[in-house]
Structure formats: C-alpha cells, structure tokens
Protein 1
Amino acid sequence: MKITIWGCRGSMPSPGPEKNKYGGNTSCVQLEHNNSCIILDGGSGIQSLGKKLSPDISVVNILLTHLHIDHIMGLGYFQPFYNPNCTINIWGPAGSSESLTVRLRRYFSPPFFPVRLNELYAKINIIEINNSSFKIDDFVIKSEYLCHPGPTVGYRCELGESVVSYMPDHEPALGSSNFPYLSEWCSGYNIAKDADLLFHDGQYRNEEYDRRVGWGHCSMEDAIEFGSLSNVKKMVLFHHDPVNKDLDLETMLHQSAQNKTFDYELSLARENEVFEIN
Amino acid sequence: MSSREIEVILSRQLADSLSTPVFIVDTEGSLIFYNEPAEELLGLRYEETGVMLMAEWSSIFTPRDDHGNILPPEELPLVQTMTEQEPAHGEFWIKSLKGIKYKISVTSFPIMGRPNRFLGAIAIFWKIMEK
C-alpha cells in the first residue's frame, strides 16, 4: 500500500516560503493499492492530487472525516468530478437531521461555489456512514465517531494485516476519563489501536490547548500519549496550525517529545511525503 | 479493551462534572458508570463495584413506593427507558447500602447517537426533602 500526503495543514491553506517544508495545503491523504484509489478528505491538497491521477481512472472513493471547510474546500477543484466516465463515491458521517447530500450541497452552491453538485459531470454516489465497517476493493474500512465538534469520524483502513488510521481532527483528552490511561473511555482508540501508521491531530502546544479546550483539536503532547495508549507503530502529526512556520513545528515537536517516553516512530506530516506499507 | 461510543464517553464526562447524581447504562442495561454524587446517595463507590447488571442495580437499593411496597424493576424509570427507548420519570424510596432511606425523583432518557442509534440511557436523580 502506498500512502501519499497531499495536504496536512489545518483550518485554512497557508502557503509561503517559510512553510515550504511541511506545506500549506489542507487535509488530503491518498491510499493506493493495485487499481484502488482511496482519498481521505478533500482539503485543498486534493486539487494537486486530481491533476496527477490518470484521466482514464474510472472509480475514486473519497472518505470525508467531516464537513468543516478545510476538509472539503478542494472538492470543487478535483478534476475527476468533471470526467463523465468517472464514478466518485463520497463517504461521510451521518448527522442528526440533515443528510450528507444536503450538507454537501451547501458547499456545491453559490455563493461558495458556482457549480452545483448535480451539475458535475462524473457519476456521484454519496454514502452516509456512522460507526460502520465496509469494503472498498481489497480494503476493509472502519469508521467511528470521534470527539470533534459536529459529526466527525476517524477511519481505520485495513489491507490484509496492514493498518493505516486517519484522524486529522481529534481531541481525545476532552471526553476521556483519566486520559491517557483508560482505552475503554478514550475517543478514537478503536480506530487507532495497533495501527502501522496513524495520522493524528497535533495542532497545539500545551499552553495553546489550555485556552482552546473543546475546539476539537489536541496538543502534540496529548497526541503522543494517545499514540502510546493505542500502541501504534508510527504516528505522523497532522493538522498543523496555519500560523506555524516550518521551524515552529519542529521546535514544537522537539519540546513536546523530549519529556515523553514512547516506543514508536514519531514525525511531522509533510506535504508530498510518501509511505509504503507492506 | 475496546473503547465505548463517543456519545457514551462524553455522557460520562458530563456526569463526572455534575453535582447531581447520574447513572449511565449501556444497551444491555448494565450500569457502566455512576458519578460521585450518586456514590454518596447509593452508599457505594463506582471503583468498588465496576459494571453492574440490570438485575442487580434494579433491586440492590430496594426501591419502594410511598406505602412501602417493593417496586418491581419494570416500574423503575431507567428500566422503562431501556425497554421503550423513551424518557421516563418517577418518584420512589431507596435504601442506600449504608442503610439510609431517601425519597428520590428520577428522570431517565435514552442516549441516541447519530443517526438515531440507541446507545444506552442516562438517569438523573434528585433527593426529595420530605416535610
């Protein structure tokens, strides 16, 4: 399985020379295996991904964690939507009242976007999920609601024995009792457990998080603790705050990791970074 | 151990921060959490009991009506909520495990996750001061 990061910035795109290393595009990760193309979130990074896909691609699966704008803002610029020979399956979390289709139409309509959902050329299927398990080709995907404002899921993508987990927006310490010690009472544990590769929110410094409890994101230190609780093999910190430059992120990681004991690989998500898992 | 649904986790977090006694049960009716004010009312600590089955918690506090008659489980609001998946309310007497009798008011309601998934129930207790 090949995994490519097309965007890992949080909240809003923030390009600039001081952010060249980790990138300014918002959430988008691609999983590839044989002919399968699974895309996690449709942030601004999906625009570059769309240009790289073969024009002959016939099926694309887009798995949305939630509908905050930084996770869907690139959808309208994703080229396969304008290919009449392409089928695009959009998976996303069910809400309490409005359907996923109705909520997506808010984005695909003026004044946010000039082209409406039913005017796109591709064949589009919209599938609501909740705490679900479903198959996409050889992948088994598990989704589960997470601690984050509004309907939000994390995804666990299993291919044989390999597991990639994706929870770019997650605040595990908020709802958890006795965090990070009780897996039974910790949001997201089922999605992350024993993952080979976990993409996880790590937006804040500790002192920043203290002023932003309930906003749906977590500190790097909490993310590191969550990785240990979940027994992951590698964790990639995701959803970089748009105000943080490359050097800021590296300083944050160093400071957050230096007082922690953990036994897995830890790194910062970097746009265009590629992982291979066998 | 697998984690519980986020709606249940957050319900516990809410209960944990209230000074009102609260019970949380799962879809089987097992008592999976009660908060400190509930511990005081019931006379036992959550850490000591852990998960309690419905048959146990519905009778251990010997619920009685105003005339001293034992209430069967099906007349308890929380049991009704589990059965009907609807809110319920009632007033009755209980005897804590320390032997103290209280008259309590209980309101229970189902925990319905998105999209309409029944995940258990919450009961909120209120100690009634008898004049």
Protein 2
Amino acid sequence: MSSLVLEMAAKALRLNVPLSVQLDLTYRCNERCIHCYLDHDDHGEMNTAEILDLLEQMAAAGVFYLTISGGEIFMRRDFFEILERARQLTFCVKLKTNAVLIREKEARRIGELGVESVQISVYSHLPEVHDAITKMPGSFRQTIEGVRLLVQEGLSVTLANVLMVQNSGDYHGVRVLAKELGAKYTVDPTITPMMDGDRSILNLNIDQSALQGVFRDGTLVGNVEEFCAPPSGPDAEALDMLPCSAGHTACYVSPYGDVYPCVQFPLPSGNVRQTKFIDIWRDSPQLNEVRTITLRDMPSCSQCTHGGSCTRCPGLAFMEGNMRGPSSQDCEKSFARTGIPSENYKKRHASPHSPATLNLVQIQGVQPVQPVHSGIPGKLIEGRAATA
Amino acid sequence: MTNNQYVARSKAIAARALGDETMVMSARNSTLFTLDEVASVIWAAADGVTPLQEIVRRQVCSRFDVAPDIALQDAEALVANLAEHGIMLVSDQPLETAAGARTDAR
C-alpha cells in the first residue's frame, strides 16, 4: 500500500470518516460453494430505491472505496442501475463476482462505467475441481470466459483463490492461469464460519502442513525468512495499535440493511432501514465499543509472544465468542508461519474442543440507536499522486 | 493572464472530499491523487462552463490571500498536470461532462 493511501486512511481515522464500505446486494447466488458462509435465500433484500438512497447517504458520509459484492451481484436485475448511480456519485468501485453471468455486453458496460477492479473467485485451474467446489457444472468455463472478456475491456481483474482441503495443491496452477489471462492473483488460506455462527465448514480448512507450505512459498509471501521470523512479543507501541480497519474506517452493509464492522465481523450495529447510515456510523454503541479496543485490552493476546505480529481478526474472535479474545484460526496461522505456538494454541491442542457457537443470525431485529449528537497551505495548489 | 480555459472533472475518476482535501483516483490506472484545500476548490468548481480565470477570481482570490496572476499561473499548472493524468478535461471551449463513466477525452 502506498504512503499516500496510508496517509488518507490515517486522516479518515482522525476525522471518523467511513472510507471503505462493502455493500452486499444479495445473498442469492447461482453457485453453491461448499465453503460459503452465507445462506442463499432472500429474506427481504433492500429494493432499488433503498439502495440508491443508501448510496447517496454513503457518498455524503465520505465513503470513497465501495466494494459491491454478494451472493452473486448479477442475481440482482437492477445491478447496472445501482452501479451506474454508484459511479455517478464518484465512488471508487470494486466488484466481487463469480463472473458466470458476464458476457460481452456486461463486460463492456462494466468497462464503460470505470469500475476500479473486479475480483473473481477461481478455486482451481482444473475445471473438475473448481466445479466440484461451486457445485455448478460448467462454472469454470463460464467464469474463465467472463475473466477474458473483462480483461479485454482493460479492467483490472484479480483471481481470488480461496484454499481448502479440496484444492490445497492447486494454487500454483491458478497463479499460472491468472498470468495467462492477464489477471492478478490473490490467495486466501482461511475458511471462515457461516454468518449464522455454524462452524461446520471450518472442517474444510487446510491442515498445518499445507498452511506451512503456503507460508514458506516465496513466490506468494516474498521474503520467507522475514515472513516466518519468530515473534519478539508486543512492544508498547504495538499494545496501543488498533486491530484493523473494521469499524474504524470501514464497515459492511448486508442486503437487508444491517451494518456490521466488517463482513467477517457480524456484530449487529444498526440497520439503515431504521437509522441514517451516518448516525449508525457515528453513534452506534457497538461500533464505538469496537473502536475502543486496542491490543492492550485483549487479556490473552496482549500477553502472547505473537501479539505484535499476529494477523488476528477481531471478527473471527467475535465469532468464537469474545471480540477481545484470540482468534484460534489466526493462532493456527501464526504457528504455521513461525513454528512457535501461542498460549491459546497450546491450550486448544491440549484439550481440543469447538468454541462456543454464537447465536448469530443474518437478519437482525436491531433497535434503532438514538443519536447523541480552513488555512491557506504553504504552497498554493498541490496535487500529489500515488498508485494505489 | 492567458486565454480563457474551460476545465471539467473527467468522468473516468473516483473522487471524495476528505476534510479540506480531495482524493481523486484515475479509473485509467488507479493512480491516487490528493488535492490540497485550494486545488479542491478549483476541482469542485470545474463544471466545464465557467472559465478557469473566473474560477480563480471568484473562488480562490476571494477566499485566499493570493495575487490573481500568481493564483491563475498555479491553477493553470495544476489543471495541466491533472489533464496529463486524464482526470481533468481542459479546453478553450466550454465542456459538458458529468462524473461517473469512462472517457478518453482530454
């Protein structure tokens, strides 16, 4: 990430601006991926007018990066109406899709609308493996055709390769495929619990040995020695660090209008059908609680030798039952990276048990939250640039 | 003073005010720019029909302590730089534009 992007993020944090939002238009999908964390029924999605109004509200609140995702975004018949309005409001739009429904016409329109990037899920370079994961015969062929068409339109396309037991050895093949297609590549070795709290799909996570293989692959992580270096423990500066952007400069809005700190952090913080987006962002007790948490406030992680370097996800910790607690999946990753177990890792492996399942649901009856409610620069006119 | 220039925000950008600055990203290559307070004033006023000289006189000189000829010189340099990156359109004729779609016009 460039220093200019970091500088803007720091300024947004100071000004309490929601710089990034992921908006899921629907949880409906034409695929049935075995690892998906969503159910695919429509429990009362926001209609077109509600979404267009939300876009106006988010623009006024200062949202710059807008990720439009799902479910499958092309299951919405009003998708292009929404995208056109988003671009009129000058959001930096990123799309997440399986690209199955993208043909010439759709690719051309996405290109014309100046979408910043498109991320497409590809699980394997082998059609039979990909299709077995999506449970949709022919999906690999259709997805790859969609990728080709978007690349032809000059769009920045990234193949997102989620690893699980079924495809753990295929990431080299997907990387080569991405290069052949003129696309970028990103890998994610983590399967997350379902948003309703069901943790059964975690059985699909790749094992320690496969995870170690990923973390010791220099073509993926860069400097392996540095990436896998033993942790030195959190210093005073690390103890005051914020865990991530969730709830600080970023949030998530579900198809039903529920606001969460992040798509992976399903803490119900308000609903835009009941409360204005900016009021939720500024005044939600849940978001404000998330904002108070630093590493110092985490009893276990602040004492852990991995505390300063761990990729701990507060959302995964929340789904384990405590947003100030450890995220066991990240403890697994820290062990795979460094070979040094965290205290939580040792405890879990001494007496393995599943963490308590939270009664999380996708449709929340959230109570409305009551709001509590220039100098001349040295150089006259300045424009600075950096590639994001 | 030079001849009148007309300036308009390109359609091929993403942009948002952040405090007194403005973030602008080129849809062409994802390059991110930040405009300072004065540049942000010019950016916001770049409607394609108001001459740059007029924007500088009305929006910049009235709000900031700067000589008109210096302000115009700086403004011309700014818009030329932004036009080079494809995020602003500059013309000697009035322009019609609206943000939100790709265009290669400059």
